[in-house]
Amino acid sequence: MHELSIAINIVEVAEEEAERLGGKVEAIHLKLGKMSGVVKDALFASFEMACEGTSLAGTRLVIEEIPVQVFCSVCRETHTLSTMQQFCCPECATPTSEIVHGKEIEVVALEMAG
User: Fold this and answer.
1) 5-23 pLDDT, tens digit each
2) Taking the C-alpha atoms of 43, 48, 54 and 58 in order, what is their torsion angle to the nearest 10 degrees?
3) Domain assignment present for 96
4) Of 23, 47, 55, 85, which sees the most CB atoms within 10 A?
């Protein structure tokens, strides 16, 4: 379960930032791509375990799921895929492998309390 190692890393980064800023983290906001290889529910559970016994115990993890978006070389536009079964442009059906979004695992914000 690699979600636990990801959760531990998130906790470590948030603790360092909280110490630097001199506050308590109330929530961590994360962007999680559909193709990140991370199971959202497993990450929630792992995050809770990783926070136990740390200054982040009780901190909320807020996850924004990012859909898979690809660039179509024919349409010259970015499109959101409705399924990950076929990597084809939903407008013109041209196969594409140029993924623009959907692989993210990114901490984007910390909600802090003074």
Assistant:
1) 999 999 999 999 999 988 9
2) 130
3) no
4) 47
Number of domains in the chain: 1
| Backbone torsions φ then ψ of 12, nearest 5 degrees | -60, -45
Query: What secondary structure letter does DSSP report for 67?
Result: P
Residue 71 neighbours by CB under 8 Å, 6+ apart: 77, 78, 79, 96, 98, 100
Domain extent at residue 106:
2-67+101-113
Is residue 75 assigned to a domain? no
Helix, strand, coil percent content, the chain, rounded in steps of 5: 30, 35, 40
Query: Is-contact 69 100, C-beta < 8 A?
Result: yes
Question: pLDDT by residue (tens digit) across 49-100?
Answer: 999 999 999 999 999 999 999 999 999 999 999 888 888 999 999 999 899 9
Q: What is the pLDDT of residue 1?
A: 57
